[in-house]
Amino acid sequence: MKLKVLFSFFLFIVAALIITGAEKAMYNPTPVLFKIPYGFPKPATNIFANNSLTEEGFQLGKKLFYDGKLSKDGEVSCGSCHQPFAAFSTYDHDLSHGINNNFSTRNAQALINLAWMKEWHWDGGINNIEMQPLAPLTAANEMGETLDNVMLKIKADSVYRRMFRNAFGNANITSSQMLKALAQFTGSLVSANSKYDKVKRGEASFILPEQKGYEIFKALCNSCHAEPLFTDNSYRNNGITLNRFDDIGRQKITGNKSDSLKFKVPTLRNISLTLPYMHDGRFAYLDKVIDHYTNIDTTIKNLDTQLRKKIILSNIERQQLLLFLRTLTDTAFTKNKRFLP
Amino acid sequence: MIKIALSFFCLLSFSLAYPQKTKKENRIIIHFENRANGKKIVLNDSIYSTIFDEKYAVHKLKYYVSDIHFITQKKEKVIKEVFLIDAAKDNTINLLMPEENIAGIQFLLGVDSLLNCSGAQEGALDPLNDMYWTWNSGYVMFKMEGTSNSSPADKQRIEQHIGGYKGAFKTMRMVKLFCIKNKEITIVMNLDKYWDGINKIKIAEMPVIAAIGEEAKKIADNFAGMFCVAD
Predict the structure, then answer these.
(1) Which of A99, A120, A123, A100 is nearest to A111 (CA)?
(2) In a domain, A21, yes or no
(3) Which of B1, B126, B213 lies nearest to residue A255, judging by beta carbons?
(4) Which terminus has fewer CB within 10 Å in chain A: N or C?
(5) Across the interface, do B6 and A8 touch by the CB < 8 Å criterion?
(6) Which domain holds residue A67?
(7) Do A131 and B132 touch (CB under 8 A)?
(8) ∠ CA(A147), CA(B139), CA(A177), 5° rounding?
(9) How far apart are the C-alpha atoms of B143 and B223, rounded to whole Å?
(10) pLDDT by residue (tens digit) across A299-329?
(11) Are both A101 and A156 inside the same structural domain?
(12) Domain shared by A259 and A163, yes or no
């Protein structure tokens, strides 16, 4: 009798141990180390500090990124306007297409080395990478969906339910988990394997015109497009005129008149793939961008002090600079299977 | 037999996990009541009027209350929880209170800058609550929507999304209330003072505020005067 009780007690303990063990085995995400490439600074803020980077989180973020279901008509995904082969910008489109043949009012930015930024978007309006997806998801001319509907669609999908459980360990899917998963994917888009990087690592060398172009770059462009990220992430008025959307840029975010027509200095990494250029894609080719800096109206109020002196290049120097800029193309990044759908 | 053993085990573990509370907790119950023209606000129904005799109806009314402090003789106790008060819902909060008598209560109308920058959050700060600006990151501290014949905006709408957490344009405001006599109190938010505070606001002049700036700041400066403890 006593033995029986003891035995059943023992059985119960064993069963309990097995059950808790199984639960633990179900949620066991694989940590992923975020590597800082050779020569890169440590990011100013660690975007993964409150969002542990895991393989399961990254894969979930990738699925969300390429899923048209997140938009109102089921057709437009994040990846529609952030195409891998265009370094995650929209190739050869000044503005991108949203639902119902709508156009966005800004050129889709390339998603490159986002982990080194403190603010995102052309005007820096986004203060945390996790909150960025809310903007395109809910904008009527982009993905046009409500956050409530997005959550309903995700919760109704058994594949998502499994992936969320594997990434975050509980059955209750939240908007916060979705945003964190997307940040794990987009924050992992690191480009640091261009010819330029190989030269810096001593694995390749510039041909002479590239070297000459690099010297021109260092003399004339590096103060804003600072190496090795090729941006200092500042906001500057580079002399482009107000467009038809009355887009005043940074001023809309800060409310300060002195920020009128200031936009974020974009990275020059993969610049050959991210045409057209400027916040509204007004310049179709890099040549036109250089033309702009050559012909800049130096009387413009608020014009950045760095641009008060016109950039005048000979034809040969111009070709050398363009050749150097091509060494910033990183096909190991654009063709990285890990980032492709 | 096994059943008996199991139930015995369950009982044992239960009693271990939940020890009986011998000390009674000192709690305070706070009801938030939203009023206009001396009456409790009923959404989509009653018509209220401002000091300028502009008539309006309220369709949506939500605001954040955070950083609740109890002011006592000794030290202050801080409640690190954010509450979203929504006129469409019952707004009763139940809080653990310090042992000694409290002289007053202090809270932040809105959420502090740290929480505005902390990325994806849950509960009251979940963007699903429709209190988050997607294009200029940050929470709307106070949101009121409605209609008014005096509004020159499209559909005669009133749309007041008061937000901004940085520098000169920050809109969260500290509210201090004294004379807390009971352990169950009602904090009244008087919408009349929204239009008639330090700054006088005309619906005809600013029916829609949906960005940071001078207008939002003007409204925010009226926040502290909108709250009082009901007798």
Answers:
(1) A120
(2) no
(3) B213
(4) N
(5) yes
(6) 55-190
(7) yes
(8) 45
(9) 12
(10) 998 899 999 988 999 999 999 999 999 999 9
(11) yes
(12) no
